[in-house]
Amino acid sequence: MAASNILSPDHLVNYIDDAALSKAALRPPRLLVMAFLGGIFISLGALLAVVVAGGATKLLAENPGLDKLLFGAVFPIGFIAVVLTGADLFTSNCATQMVPWYRRKVRLQEVVRVWGVSYLGNLCGALFAAWAFAYMTGLLSAHQPWTAYIINLAEHKVHQPFQVVFMKGVLANMLVCVAAWQGYSAKDTLGRMVGIWAPVMTFVALGMEHSIANLFFIPAAILAGADLAVTDFVTLNLIPATLGNIVGGALLIGLPYAWLYSETDGKINNPTDIDLP
């Protein structure tokens, strides 16, 4: 039988199970460095999106829908880098760690440990990128057109009701984890890139809330002069976005797929004949 270019869902969930188990077995310093790099990569994609969409001032004024599409179209570069280079991202871990947990291969405290170390590394990477690559390079100096753009973006993110940010976080990470699922399903680089790009572009263009991206957007905006308090950022955006990301990834993607495609009486639900890579 000719080899398929993608993994079927049942084999994909088994692949994710193995990858999540390997990540849970990593020593914290290794996972922390992987997550630090992941935070940088996500931030660089976010910075590119701000510069490209924020610099298109005429498009923003005349056709804000297309400007949102442009913003979303370039942002996925960071997430593609995370997946293809083996870096780490907290939000995708919200879903992937649910597979071995559901199969009783890891304990809940091990899952929480992975999430905690991953989040800390992403936070450090995002803050480093906001300072070193956005602020220190002069990209966010006052005369740049995208500086006002990122300040307006950050102010909007902070000045939303808690429940709105939470629900936007749920949808954001549903799409991020779908992107991870689709990326892992492909056996070639181009297939992975396309599988990742579409869902990530969708959540960004829709204006949803991704906690790790916000760890870049809002601190970078504060460095650029936004009149925002760190406490307001944490309580009004970061906490509800993070909680929403956990629900969207763990409860709406990870656990359902773990249940749908886990072993039952020695057989995988919906088995498919496919040649593994």
The strands making up the biggest β-sheet line up spatially as 1-2
* Terminal Cα span: 13 Å
Helix content: over 70%
Hey, roughly how much beta strand do the residues contain? Answer: under 5%
The backbone outline, from C-alpha atoms, is globular
What is the radius of gyration computed over CA atoms, rounded to a whole number of angstroms? 19 Å
Oligomerization category of the chains in this entry: single chain
Largest sheet: 2 strands, antiparallel
Count of individual helical segments? 13
Query: Could you say which structural class the secondary elements and strand pairing correspond to?
Result: mainly alpha
Low-confidence stretches: 264-277
Characterization of this structure:
By secondary structure, the protein is mainly alpha-helical. The model is unreliable at 264-277 (pLDDT under 50). The protein has helices at 9-24, 28-55, 57-62, 64-74, 77-85, 90-96, 98-102, 108-135, 145-158, 162-185, 189-205, 211-223, 230-260, and strands at 263-264, 267-268. The longest helix has 31 residues, at 230-260. β1 (263-264) and β2 form a beta hairpin. The radius of gyration is 19 Å and the shape is globular.
